[in-house]
Amino acid sequence: MKCHRCDEQGVVDLRHRRAAYCAACFVQRCREQVANTIRSHRMIRPGERALVAVSGGKDSLAVWDLLLDLGYEADGVYLGLGIGGYSDRSGACAKEFAESRDARLLEVDMARDVGFTIPQAAPSRRAPCSSCGLSKRHLLNKVAVDHGYDVLVTGHNLDDEAAVLFGNVLNWNLPYLARQRPALPEAPGFARRVKPLVRLTERETAAYCVIRGIDYIIEECPMAAGNRHLMYKEMLNSLEERAPGSKSTFLRGFSERLMPLLEDLAAEERAGVGTCSRCGSPTTGDVCAFCRLRDQAGRPPARRRSGRRGRRPARRGRGHDAAE
Ligand code: FES
Ligand code: ZN
């Protein structure tokens, strides 16, 4: 198949666009998509400093590479979750990329800097991803705020966003739907959070990395078994297989039709945010979810188990972190 833009042989076939691209035009197209997304949502303004949350996977390395190529001042931050060899290998990919681009990479090691790791924080009977997601949101935002960055960039792609939307719709979780947007504005204690890859699929970011020679960690997190997000992704992939373009239609319909109707709820959510009495982070409760997680991680396993069977903790003061 010929490239959609020039006469070269196409190497990336995008079924949902009914088009193929040669390597150079594909990379150019990715840059244009990201530049347009940043512009239309006013994600990064002139002169602002961006911090990219880098996991060592294809999406975060692709978005970092794209931002650097588009001329943004973008540093990276790697969060060591303490998940054995998986964390070692993903950290190595992040460092290798930073060195190859002569870019600055900040590093947070949960065991060293926070006192616990994700395997230690994970409740034994639930998928650990909720503790992991909570820790990432809290710690990455803290690094961005403490180091004076204007905006925190994440590598969420179209597939991620469609899967999150699917889960939120399945549960009709209106507060989460109100917060699901490509750019969440800055607020006291929060850096702006943006997702410049929302128009690119997982396949596109993987192809981008291969073409650009970016070495990324391919293996899935070993703790992700039972993760609902992955299940929703698989379901949407089978839908996409039969009806190409379904995922982007689903996501675009949400942002164009439903998101504007949820503005009031989003503003209400933002107005209800106070600060954690222990760490000062934004939360709707007395103590933020991360501080509660830290308490839980510090308890011996036996006590954690008996705590679940014993008296229920008082509900008062339990809210959610505004970034949840
Ligand atoms: Fe968070 Fe695997 S990366 S639980
Ligand atoms: Zn706190």
TrEMBL record:
Name of the protein this chain belongs to: Uncharacterized protein (TIGR00269 family)
Keyword Membrane in record: no
Sequence positions that bind Zn(2+) 2: C276, C279, C288, C291
NCBIfam families: TIGR00269 family protein (TIGR00269)
Keyword Zinc-finger appears in the UniProt entry: no
Region annotation (Disordered) ranges: 298-324
Record-linked SUPFAM superfamilies: Adenine nucleotide alpha hydrolases-like
Listed PANTHER family: ATPASES OF THE PP SUPERFAMILY-RELATED, TRNA-5-METHYLURIDINE(54) 2-SULFURTRANSFERASE
